[in-house]
Design a protein that fits this description.
Layout (H helix, E strand, L loop, with lengths): L4 E4 L3 H12 L4 E5 L3 H11 L3 E3 L2 H5 L6 E4 L3 H14 L2 E4 L5 H13 L5 E3 L7 H12 L5 E9 L20 H17 L2 E10 L19 E9 L8 E8 L7 E8 L2 E6 L2 E6 L6 E4 L14 H19 L18 H20 L3 E2 L11 H11 L1
Parallel strand pairs: 1-2, 1-4, 2-3, 4-5, 5-6, 7-10
Antiparallel strand pairs: 7-11, 8-9, 8-15, 9-10, 11-12, 12-13, 13-14
């Protein structure tokens, strides 16, 4: 029996997600939007029976047992933690800060019987599933280098909002870079321990955003990661990532891994490989075409990965008679909230590096910082 679904968000991902959920047999019972107007408009368009701008109305809905959260990062932690506390299964996007991510990890650990996964759909894309399998089998030998490029149009909303604000989780690094950081960890089974990055905001104003308002979120980002870890495909991997969202036209999404015996490269949803000594690369996995929903703000790998993730969710839930029960196997490759904390820690280290100009260490939070720590230090200095 599949659980009823409540969706938080009215953006591009929600517009793609709802039809995908329905195509797999899920019933979407409720939709949340930041305003009644937003929620009403999309609910009518996607034929969702209930809509609201009050989060509790979705979380307490009797027919909702699975909550999908695709809202501004600054709001994610609050909804995700509350949903788990009420007893709902959760699929959600990234939080705004490492502290928020840590609180989500704590909630997930407290309710281990509930599903709690991050919504990075690239892990489920058949292209990257095949790439990861070939890396484990030794297609490229000892993995040495990852080189990733994602180019596309502006990520800014038409009106001034959270996508314009770096502190609210806007920008290419937080929005797209975080999914790439997670993907690299999935492919290599390694984690970054040192990073170096550069962020720039080339478009600070446009026809819709002008006057006293300026964009602070990055539209260009370049970063490097030194990676290692137990069970990885290499003793040490160097990774370079370039993100540029000032490019008109369609997305360019290219992931290349190079090793001692060859290379693998994912171009969009196609996978190619070339071994040392071979004169040309071979097509290992072709594009079977896509006839599902599309939106300009999402790349084809993201959309097809989301479709594969929804299929995995169906397989996870359908084997159980209880609507809230799920099987771990079909969603085993999904990023956990712990993975989300790691990713957010790397993002913040890259931002520090862009400010300092130095390599920064990645140190994952082990306990929640005391919110009064800085105040206590200031009081002690005043006493001295």
């Amino acid at each position: 029996m599949l659980p009823g679904v409540g969706v938080f968000g009215t953006g591009a991902t929600a517009r793609v997600l709802v039809p995908l959920l329905k195509s797999e047999g899920f019933e979407v019972h409720a939709l949340w939007g930041r305003s009644e107007e937003e929620a009403s408009c999309l609910a009518k368009e996607l034929d969702i029976p209930f809509h609201t701008s009050r989060s509790d109305d979705v979380l307490l809905h009797q027919e909702v047992d699975l909550v999908c959260i695709y809202i501004p990062p600054s709001m994610t932690r609050q909804i995700a933690v509350k949903a788990l506390g009420i007893g709902k299964n959760v699929v959600c996007e990234k939080a705004a800060t490492a502290v928020d991510s840590f609180k989500m990890v704590a909630a997930a650990r407290y309710y281990p019987q509930l599903l709690s996964i991050m919504g990075n759909s690239l892990r489920f894309l058949p292209t990257f599933v095949a790439m990861q399998k070939l890396l484990v089998e030794g297609y490229v030998g000892e993995l040495q280098v990852c080189d990733i490029r994602v180019y596309g149009p502006s990520l800014l909303d038409e009106a001034y909002g959270w996508t314009c604000e770096e502190l609210m989780g806007g920008g290419g690094l937080h929005t797209i870079g975080s999914t790439i950081i997670d993907l690299v960890s999935f492919l290599t089974r390694a984690r970054a321990h040192r990073v170096h990055g550069l962020l720039r905001t080339f478009v600070q104003q446009n026809n819709s955003i002008r006057g006293i308002r300026r964009v602070t979120s990055d539209d260009f980002c370049f970063f490097q990661m030194l990676m290692s870890g137990k069970g990885s495909c290499s003793s040490g991997v160097c990774c370079t990532v370039t993100l540029n969202f000032n490019m008109p036209g369609s997305f360019v999404h290219e992931v290349m891994v190079v090793g001692s015996a060859g290379r693998l490269i994912a171009r969009g949803t196609e996978l190619y490989g070339q071994r040392n000594g071979s004169k040309k690369e071979e097509l290992l996995l072709g594009d079977n075409g896509w006839s599902g929903p599309e939106v300009k703000a999402m790349s084809l790998p993201q959309i097809q990965g989301l479709s594969s993730m929804v299929k995995a969710l169906r397989q996870s839930f359908q084997a159980h008679e209880e609507r809230r029960s799920w099987a771990r196997g079909p969603v085993a490759m999904a990023p956990t909230f712990e993975d989300g904390l790691y990713v957010q820690t790397v993002v913040e280290a890259i931002k520090r590096s862009s400010t300092s100009g130095e390599w920064e260490c990645v140190e994952i939070m082990r306990e929640e910082p005391d919110p009064n720590h800085n105040l206590c230090e200031a009081l002690q200095r005043n006493k001295m």
